[in-house]
Specification:
Helix content is 10%, strand content 39%. The strands form three sheets. Strands 1-16-15-14-13-12 form a six-stranded antiparallel β-sheet, with no helix packed on it.
Length: 273
Amino acid sequence: MKKMFLISFVCMCVCCGESPKKNITSPKNNIASQKNYIDFESSEKLFNKISKTTNLFKNKKETQIDYEGDTQSLSDSIILVKKRIGTKYNINLYTYLYTPPTYAAFHSEYLKINNLKISIDSLLYKEHNNVIEKHPYFYFRTVSYLHFGKNDYILIELQNRNFNMNGDITSYLLIKMHKSTLISTWLFYNGYHDEKVFADFDNDGELDYLDWGTRKNEISLYSLKKDSLIKNKEKFIFVVPSKEFIEFEETFHDSNDWYFIVDKSKSNWFFKF
């Protein structure tokens, strides 16, 4: 399976590196013969059908480690280094060059945005739809920007770097800025691996988030309204695993993918399937 958050780091859903194991079912008969289902053949094809917007994050760049003098020693063996998150704003992450030896050490990581210090832990515990079992240790990989309405949005792509967690999990940190002032932050844990999950899907002038994670039967839509993340209860897509997905999971007792067969009878989106 391949593997979305609210920061404070709004940590929306932090589980232990992969979605909880659950029983999965797929329509028993041939999908093609069932009028209530449509098989998109892959998660990419379904996502391309859903995402038809030009309001996208752009100028994606790799984040950088800055070794020039700004390190903080927590002990003889644990040293935080400064990581520059892009250059458009004064955003830096104080993180570990190498994986720390204990989970307790993770709790020292923090962001600085225009000299405002934000604990990574505080972001994680704000995630909107999961329970954190262990603190994930993130790579802050890329940064991209979007000017939307009167505000700037900064999107940072994260991946788990814990040895005992699935490194394929993709998460996002979304930062809302007005000029040089930080408005809010959200962490989206374990979501779809494409920045196009952030867009104005319903064309209402609000930035939306498409919540679609691995092994999830429902694709949900959230909107940032008055700086709160609000779930759209009227728009959703129900998906089921393919026969091949189930066979793979039963054989290998694990998988890293998204469901992509749509149950049309249960779904309600901005277009007809």
